[in-house]
Design brief:
alpha+beta, 9 helices
Length: about 300
Amino acid sequence: MLVEPVAARRLRYAARAAGVGLVSVALFALATWLLLDSSACRSAQDYGCLGFAVLWAYTVPFLDFFFSWTALRIVKVRPAWLTALLGVGTGWYVAWSTRMTGWVSGGTLYVQLAVYVAVFALAAWFTQSTRPLWPRAVVALALVLLMPLGSVAAARSSQEDELAAARVALLGPNLPAGYHLNGVGTTGSAVGSDPTFYYRLTPDSLRNGANTMDELHQEIHVIVGPLQPGFAPPAHCVAVTNVYPVPSHPCSEAAPGVWRWSNYQYVEYFTRVGSTVAVVQADTPPVNDAVLREIAATMRVRTPSYFSRR
């Protein structure tokens, strides 16, 4: 009976693992699109769809691990659990870092896909050895557990660089008394999507973050994006949208260059500064409408340090 060389077995396992990585990322990307694009999610009131999206984002890595583990066992890649743990843990971290640190200027979505697949192949290669399994398992587990710490450090160190490289003006208000900036970030690095800049104004009483729906409703959300052709207040006031067309509702002028739209408690203020529009979103109550108007009226172009130092 011929014994397969170790190098040949590693290559075979790496190729199979890369296929599993490709299938898993495609499967969960499709599932995410179907769930978040569903009519139930898109028509959810208040933060219903946002809350679901956050919950789904935290659930996907665990589901991906169990799916990859099962798939690797089916294609006879061993040890399947260790390859899945290392592939999913490292793959998600590296893909996230690619987006957050701006290692590439365009086509980030495709780079993330290629990196994720490559990590799965390397995980299968790494786990193949004639040495005892437990040292490799300890190393893999340590790497996966250290990923969140590395993520926090990378996010803090790269935030100002990310803001400086943003392709949209950094509009910020005169910070109202009793509020602090939170959740600052940018999006739109993927091909075909417009750049946006976002953050939250959180009450100082929620220094530890909003954990309940009532606390979420106390936060003010701000989205900043490039001026779109359909934004023509007061008749058409959809300023920053995703790739899906939505009805363009009318709004009323609240101050020079500031417009207001409401749907029961949900309120949006729009401010145009040059070729950029800021959208201030909140529920009134609990947020005071006068505070929202003040935020919208004091929007100015700020430096990255304005957002990163707070």
